[in-house]
UniProtKB/TrEMBL annotation:
GO biological process: amino acid transport
SMART domains: PBPb (SM00062), PBPe (SM00079)
Organism: Latilactobacillus fuchuensis
Boundaries of every ABC transmembrane type-1 domain copy: 279-468
Protein name (record): Glutamine/glutamate ABC transporter, membrane-spanning/substrate-binding protein
Length: 477
């Protein structure tokens, strides 16, 4: 029995070392390329176009500066909050995401020269009777977390007697107003103007206020060479007219509502490649994670039935900890928390696999213990009375019966792992859910895109459920 546990432990460590080693080599090979975090759901500053390429004012400025100054950039679609945390933990080198320069942020970040000046506006439904801040008394207002618009709204909420509700995505904030749950939302002027030009069913009712300036940011005291190159490149873009062309490209009359087919099937056809790519990443992440989670679960599940009190205590503790932690907290702790302490980067894919391995592996360990415990104790006693050692009795008598009980649970855990991959969009893994967010940021068709994604998940999970029932019937014979 000890040999089995030792073998599985070694296999698990070697596997993780290989995955981490490959990712480390990839990072080392890209030492000349700066990792830049962005929101990618904040048009016209950052979003993905119909070819699923990252574009927008921020992206074009960053790429233009990189070309001018002779370095490369790898754009990471982490989302605003995750990008901020990733810069602080030095997972990435900088962030360009419509980030307003404030005194509070200057305490933790070094900012470039400002590259855009903006102001906050309020938007309401097209047929709303609210014409200004005075009409918000006793009402609910939607804001997006981490934005200057949110800060402004909260600063005047008491004065005008309204309450705020916070969303992580712009599309969810807009839809909260369109659906009538909130009476208004606050947003940066160019972002709201672009959304309305591309078909958003809202109208702006206030003049820009609470103006701020956007800047490129790095962790305080780090990447000063990059910051200097950004400032030099920005000055060159302004001098040669490229900066003005970038703004006109996204804020001029060219940014009119697209005439593309916006029906369900039209959107599906337009975005099928991106959705299939996201599905492929989801399935890959699921298979790798469930592989390591199974090994992890077998190790700690078997430890939980050993005659050693220490082994059982370790098993119980590990299961208790990793089943008790919310998956999103575990993912952020591994991806941003650990690097903050160690100074070592953890690639998003590796962090995602480790997160799912620990969480799903803890549940696997629990039903491994339960499966073995469900075997009649007389089976072990009979095997021992025949002269078999504990290890041989477990391996040849108890485990074969326990595995028959466990197999359906293994397949169900595979289904659960597939669904849990969606949470990893929080650390920027471009799986199916994150792909959906990026598509919605471009076309603002939240209901239809989420319906497609729900349908894809439903089809895959239905197939896995059929497989589970088939295996269960076969095992019952």
């Amino acid at each position: 029995m000890k040999r089995i546990v030792l073998f599985l432990s070694s296999f698990l460590l070697v596997g993780l070392f290989m995955v981490g080693g490959q990712s480390t080599k990839q990072v080392q090979a890209a030492t000349q390329t700066y990792q830049i975090g962005t929101d990618v759901t904040y048009p016209p500053f950052e979003f993905a176009n119909e070819q699923n390429q990252y574009v927008g004012i921020d992206i074009d400025i960053m790429k233009g500066i990189a070309k001018s100054e002779g370095f490369k950039v790898d754009i990471k679609p982490l989302g605003f909050n995750a990008s901020v945390q990733a810069v602080q933990s030095q997972q990435i080198d900088g962030i360009i995401a419509g980030m307003t320069i404030t005194d509070e942020r200057k305490a933790k970040f070094d900012f470039s020269d400002p590259y855009y000046k903006t102001g906050v506006v309020m938007a309401v439904q097209k047929d709303s009777k609210v014409t200004g801040l005075a009409g918000l008394k006793g009402k609910r207002v939607a804001v997006k977390t981490g934005t200057s618009a949110s800060d402004y709204a909260n600063s005047v909420a008491k004065k005008y007697g309204f309450t705020t509700v916070t969303f992580d995505e712009s599309d969810n904030m807009y839809n909260d107003v369109i659906n009538g749950n909130s009476v208004a939302c606050f947003e940066d002027q160019p972002v709201m103007q672009y959304g309305i030009k591309t078909g958003l069913a809202l109208k702006i009712v206030t003049k820009p206020t609470g103006g701020g300036e956007y800047g490129f940011a790095v962790k305080k005291g780090t990447n000063q060479a990059l910051l200097k190159q950004f400032n030099q490149g920005l000055a060159k873009l302004k001098a040669n007219g490229q900066y003005a062309k970038i703004q006109a490209k996204y804020l001029g009359t060219v940014a009119n509502k697209t005439k593309a087919d916006r029906s369900f099937f039209g959107l599906m056809n337009e975005n099928k490649d991106a959705l299939l790519s996201g599905l492929g990443q989801t399935l890959l992440l699921t298979v790798i994670s469930i592989f390591f989670a199974t090994i992890f679960g077998l190790i700690f599940g078997l430890m939980g039935v050993l005659p050693s009190r220490l082994a059982r205590g370790v098993s119980t503790t590990v299961i208790y900890i990793f089943r008790g932690l919310p998956l999103i907290v575990l993912a952020l702790f591994i991806y941003t928390g650990i690097p903050s302490l160690t100074g070592q980067k953890i690639p998003a894919m590796v962090a995602g696999v480790i997160t799912l391995m620990l969480n799903e592996g803890a549940y696997t360990a629990a039903f491994v213990k339960g499966g073995i415990g469900a075997v009649n104790s007389g089976q072990m006693e009979a095997a021992r009375s025949l002269g078999l050692s504990y290890g041989k009795a477990m391996r040849r008598v108890v485990l074969p019966q326990g595995i028959r009980i466990m197999v359906p649970s293994f397949i169900n855990q595979f289904i659960i792992t597939l669904k849990d991959t969606s949470i990893l969009s929080i650390i920027g893994i471009l799986e199916l859910t994150q792909t959906g967010k990026i598509i919605i940021a471009r076309n603002l068709e939240g209901f239809k895109i989420w319906a497609m994604i729900a349908l894809i998940y439903l089809v895959v999970i239905t197939l896995l459920t059929w497989l589970s029932k088939f295996v269960e019937r076969r095992m019952a014979k």
